[in-house]
Specification:
single chain, alpha/beta, Metallo-beta-lactamase, Chain A, Rossmann fold, 6-stranded mixed β-sheet, 27% helix, globular
């Protein structure tokens, strides 16, 4: 029996022929990295390869590492295996990784979304035989509204809070979600202030994207300055001494998990906006169909339910365990970033 082109090991997704790993979670000699979130780009590898727009993000997080960049669709060979990176649409610099050997093609998506958010290079469907897909939101209950509608709701919420002379505090993951929120906030309503962790990551991304002006909150910032304005902060700031200094304020979270009212109640959030940097149920299904793949491997998310549905539709679908966390990942990494960056 022919060995699979990619296999799942205790270190990560491994291409044995090329002796290279895709988004490994343990230190390896050579790693191809899909994007900058902490569960996909980890410290300790000897050599990193990624899209060039992802390099400043990864270096900001991991420090002085040996890393090289590639362009979209550029083919590079490792031990006669062809690799190329293609837009995943998840966050700035996020890639799908295409692997080809002797006519067989696999695609590893990392994390992805198909809606153009105006920041990340829009998702591109890649033809393949085997498609490795996340299914963070692989349930029919997850159905996203167009982001224009969501941002209309967010800006209306902000304007209403301003009319009541309250500060609006909007939680979004430090890398990706915070910049997407910033991109589409209506600056005619007021000023946008940021938590230090959000500001530091936003400064890294500014050369890669057109973003509005922000003001970092410091110990010298007076709460009177914040009244009526917007504050962008990571989820881990909720309930901290940092936020309690902003009274009176109203909180909101932007996440796919806000689909469930219970998630908002558990987090003691005043308002929830359903906005995700991952595909919803229909987006996953349409993406898989567009690849023409016969075999689908489901990772991180509702893997059992989603793969079972795919088998009912005639796919050769299975699941594999990984250490990727989907939209939950940046909660932990955001906390670590704040401890380092204030």
């Amino acid at each position: 029996m022919q060995k699979p082109l990619l296999k799942f090991t205790d270190k990560g997704i491994y291409c044995e022929i090329a002796d290279v790993y895709l988004d490994p979670w343990r230190p390896v000699k050579k790693a191809i990295i899909s994007h900058g979130h902490s569960d996909h780009s980890r410290w300790g590898h000897q050599k990193y390869i990624t899209h060039h727009r992802n390099i400043p993000i990864v270096k900001h997080r991991l420090g002085d590492i040996d890393i090289s960049g590639r362009e979209w669709g550029e083919t590079f060979r490792i031990n006669n295996v062809k690799f190329s990176l293609h837009p995943a649409g998840h966050i700035v610099g996020s890639s799908q990784i295409r692997v080809e050997h002797q006519g067989e093609v696999w695609v590893f998506t990392g994390d992805y979304k198909t809606e153009n958010d105006g920041l990340a290079t829009p998702y591109e469907s890649v033809q393949c035989h085997t498609f490795i897909t996340e299914c963070t939101f692989g349930l029919p209950a997850f159905k996203w509204s167009p982001q224009t509608e969501v941002f209309d709701e967010i800006n209306q919420w902000w304007a209403a809070n301003k009319a009541e002379k309250k500060t609006s505090v909007l939680f979004g993951y430090t890398l990706g979600k915070a910049q997407r929120l910033l991109k589409h906030l209506d600056t005619n309503i007021g000023k946008i202030y940021t938590h230090g962790a959000v500001e530091n990551m936003t400064q890294v991304i500014r050369p890669l994207a057109d973003l509005p002006e922000t003001i970092q909150i410091t110990p010298e910032t007076k709460k009177e300055e914040l009244l009526g304005n917007m504050v962008l902060a990571p989820p881990s700031a909720h309930g901290s001494s940092w936020i309690r200094k902003m009274v009176p304020f109203v909180t909101a979270s932007a996440s796919g998990w806000m689909t469930f009212r219970g998630a908002r109640r558990r987090r003691a959030i005043d308002k929830g906006f359903v906005l995700s940097d991952h595909c919803d149920w229909q987006g996953l299904l349409e993406s898989i169909e567009a690849t023409g793949a016969e075999r689908v491997i489901c990772t991180h998310g509702y893997t059992d339910i989603f793969s079972r549905y795919l088998r009912e539709r005639g796919y050769d679908a299975s699941t594999e365990d990984t250490q990727y966390e989907g939209e939950l990942a940046e909660i932990d990494s955001g906390t670590q970033t704040e401890e380092k960056e204030g």
